[in-house]
Amino acid sequence: MKILVTGANGQLGKALRQLEERYPQHSFRFLSREDLPIHHFELVRNFFKADTPDVCINAAAYTAVDRAETERELAFQVNAEAVGVLAAVCRAHGTRFIHVSTDYVFNGSSDRPYREDDPTGPLTVYGESKLEGERQAMELNPDSIIIRTSWVYHETGKNFVKTIIRLLREKPYIGVVNDQIGAPTYAGDLAACIMKVAEAEKSVPGIYHFSNQGEISWYDFAVEIARLIGSTTEVRAISTPEFITPAQRPAYSVLDKRKIVETYGIELRSWQRSLEHCIRAIDQAH
Length: 286
Ligand SMILES: NC(=O)c1ccc[n+]([C@@H]2O[C@H](COP(=O)([O-])OP(=O)(O)OC[C@H]3O[C@@H](n4cnc5c(N)ncnc54)[C@H](OP(=O)(O)O)[C@@H]3O)[C@@H](O)[C@H]2O)c1
Prior knowledge:
This protein has helices at residues 11-19, 41-50, 72-93, 125-140, 160-170, 187-199, 218-229, 258-264, 271-285, and strands spanning 2-6, 27-31, 55-58, 96-102, 145-149, 152-153, 173-177, 181-182, 185-186, 206-209, 216-217, 234-238. It has 286 residues and is an alpha/beta fold. The strands form four sheets. It has a six-stranded parallel β-sheet, with helices on both faces. Strands 6-9 form a two-stranded parallel ribbon. Strand 3, helix 3 and strand 4 form a beta-alpha-beta unit. Helix 3 (72-93) packs parallel to helix 4. The longest helix has 22 residues, at 72-93. The radius of gyration is 18 Å and the shape is globular. The two termini are 35 Å apart. The structure holds NADP nicotinamide-adenine-dinucleotide phosphate (NAP). NADP nicotinamide-adenine-dinucleotide phosphate is lined by residues 6-7, 9-13, 33, 37-39, 59-63, 78, 100, 102-103, 130, 149-152, 157.
C-alpha cells in the first residue's frame, strides 16, 4: 500500500516514521508542514491527483491549545477546513482516510470514561476546531476513521514528560495539578494502533477512542516520571485554580477504548509501561 502521512514532523508523524522499517511491504510518504501545508487546499488536491495514496494518515494539526484562544481562525483553518478538504479528496480518490482527534472535544463533567457517542462540549477553541474537523470529515467522507486520543507524548516532541524532566532537574520543587484526570498516550502506541487500522482488511468507519490504559492526574504522571528518572525533587500536588492557563482543560477526560479494541483488535498498554519505554528512549538520545 501507498501510505501518506501529513504533519510528519510532529510527535505522531515521527512515531510513524519510526515504524516504517517494520512495514517493508508498504511505501510511505512522510510530508511535513513545509512539504504539504494542508491548509493550502489546491496543493492537497494536486498532490492526490499526481500521487494517489491508498491510505492517508492525517497527523497534521494546530495543537497549541492555549494560543488557539487568540488564533481561532488559524486553528479552524488547519483543524477543521483542511480536514474537510482532505476527507473529501480521499473520498474522491478511494483513499482510506485516518484522522486523529482529541479528548478536548468533551467538557470533562463525566464520572466514567467517555464513549464515542457521548455528547461533546468543548471548553476551548482548540477543542471546538477539532470537533468541527470531525464533523466535516464525517460529512464529506462518511468512510473516514477518526481516532480521538489524549495527553500525547513522545521522546521527539515538546510535551509534558519532557517538560517535567527538565523542571525536575532545574527546580528545588515542582507543583503539578492533581484535579485533572485523564490517560496519557505514548505516540508510538498510537502509531502502532493507526497502522493496524490502516492495514485492516475491512475498514469500519466512524469515531474511535484510543489511549494507554489507566486513569491518572497530571500529578500522578509527574510523580512516576520523577521515580523513573531517579529524581529526588519534591513533586507537590496543586489544584487547577493555582495553575491558570488561557485555555480551560476538562477536569476528567478518560476515553473508553472498548470500541477500537473490539473492532480492530487493538491491544492496550498500561500508561506506566509506555512511560518507562519513552523514558528509556529519552535517555538513549542523550
Ligand atoms: N499532543 C497532545 O497532547 C494531543 C492530545 C490529544 C489529541 N492530539 C491530536 O493528535 C494528533 C497528533 O498530535 P501531535 O502531538 O503529534 O501534534 P504535534 O507534535 O503538534 O504535530 C503536529 C504537526 O502538524 C504540523 N502542522 C501544523 N499545521 C500544519 C499545516 N497547516 N499543514 C501541515 N502540517 C501542519 C506541525 O508542524 P510544525 O511543527 O511545523 O508546527 C506539526 O509537525 C493531532 O491531531 C492532535 O490534535 C494531540
